[in-house]
Design goal:
- It is a single chain.
- It is built from 10 helices and 8 strands.
- The protein is α/β, with parallel strands linked by helices.
- The protein folds into 2 domains: 218 residues, Spore Coat Polysaccharide Biosynthesis Protein SpsA, Chain A (Alpha-Beta Complex), CATH 3.90.550; 71 residues.
- It binds uridine-5'-diphosphate and magnesium ion (MG).
- Uridine-5'-diphosphate binds next to strand 1 and helix 3.
- This is Putative glycosyltransferase YkoT.
- Its main location: membrane.
- It is a multi-pass membrane protein.
- One of its GO terms (cellular component) is plasma membrane.
Length: 337
């Protein structure tokens, strides 16, 4: 476990009232999973109200990330026993930006973010709120196991977290975007202006009193994953380049090592030449060319990644563009259920 109870940063004790709650869910072509989500949130809402964890029905904020299916239509026409806030982005901005848009729009004491496909078990939200009541400002949802992932996703995730920690990026392994933020934590997050968003890394930098809650990650309720390989690689590269410049340092170091090796080789070649033992050597000529060619391209690519980041950051374009918003009040149930 990355964060034991003893290690976690201690929250300042303060008395807190049962908070108002917004659950932010980015949705990209999720028409198939929305009914399941609404049912799951309905159960959660009833449970949280009954156990006095929240004082009023929660708000479900659905951010439509430029879906091409009926997602927005469903969001607009849904009413439930909790409040629904719909935000439609002007086009597909990607998961992280859609989530950021929702977080910034929310107006409540605590904000919980989760995925639309119920892979993040809503029941863990109750425990997150308990931790908030004890003074935590951030509660990270951490998956207990990766049993629902393919072997490839599991091993690549493990390798990636190891690489991140080697590069000095401090993250909570197996925490994705299921987390609770207090209003204070959210307001502080708002002051981070970068446009290349890697929220799980950014939130970890905030500090404050925080803790983790473990949950079992379920299979997707319906529909397919909206993360293809390209999006996954792009998120992975953002995770590294947004938090570490160590790859640039590694290039410099490997440059020195290769230069030192080539000095030795030059010395050897000169000695061989003086000794008259020079044979036309195809191998010793071509191998260094291939090797150095590859090393140069990798180095240029890494530097290019960072320059690309600088380029997009200096433009300071908006991270997301909101097209429309809708609000639906909680349906008051009169019937005895
Ligand atoms: N998502 C989004 N915009 C995108 C891609 C995904 O808002 O461009 C949302 C998606 O609707 C879901 C969440 O991000 O609520 C996580 O995506 P998904 O479940 O497809 O990813 P996976 O769980 O397979 O990593
Ligand atoms: Mg998912």
């Amino acid at each position: 476990m990355p964060y034991s109870k003893a290690e976690r940063s201690k929250a300042t004790p303060e008395t807190r009232q049962p908070p108002s709650l917004t659950i932010v869910v980015p949705c990209y072509n999720e028409e198939e999973s929305l009914p399941f989500l609404l049912a799951g949130i309905d159960t959660l809402n009833a449970h949280l109200l009954q156990s006095n964890r929240i004082a009023e029905p929660l708000t479900l904020m659905l951010v439509d990330d430029g879906s091409a299916d009926r997602t927005w239509e469903l969001i607009q026409n849904t009413s439930a026993r909790f409040k629904i806030a719909g935000v439609r982005l002007s086009r597909n901005h990607g998961h992280q930006r859609a989530l950021m848009a929702g977080l910034m729009q929310a107006d409540s004491d605590v904000i919980v973010s989760m995925d639309a496909d119920l892979q993040d078990d809503p029941n863990a939200t109750a425990e997150m709120i308990d931790n908030y009541m004890q003074g935590d400002d951030i509660v990270f949802g951490v998956r207990a196991s990766r049993a629902t992932d393919s072997r490839l996703k599991r091993s690549s995730a493990r390798g990636y977290y190891r690489l991140l920690s080697m590069l000095g990026v401090d993250l909570i392994p197996d925490h994705a975007d299921y987390r609770l933020l207090s209003r204070k934590a959210r307001d502080t997050l708002a002051s981070f202006g970068e446009s290349n968003l890697y929220l799980r890394g950014l939130v970890h930098q905030l500090g404050f009193g925080n803790s983790i809650v473990t949950y079992d990650r379920a299979e997707r309720s319906a529909g397919n994953s909206k993360y293809n390989l390209r999006r996954m690689i792009s998120l992975a590269i953002d995770g590294i380049t947004s938090f570490s410049v160590r790859p640039l340092r590694l290039i410099t170091i490997s440059g020195f090592v290769i230069a030192a090796a080539s000095f030795l080789f030059i010395a050897y070649a000169l000695v061989a030449w003086f000794a008259g033992r020079t044979l036309p050597g195809w191998t010793s000529t071509t191998l260094p060319i291939y090797f150095l060619g590859g090393a140069h391209l990798i180095a240029l690519g890494v530097i290019g990644e960072y320059i690309g980041k600088i380029y997009t950051e200096t433009k300071a374009r908006p991270r997301y563009i909101i097209d429309q918003t809708v609000h639906t009040d909680a349906k008051v149930s009169t019937a005895v259920e």
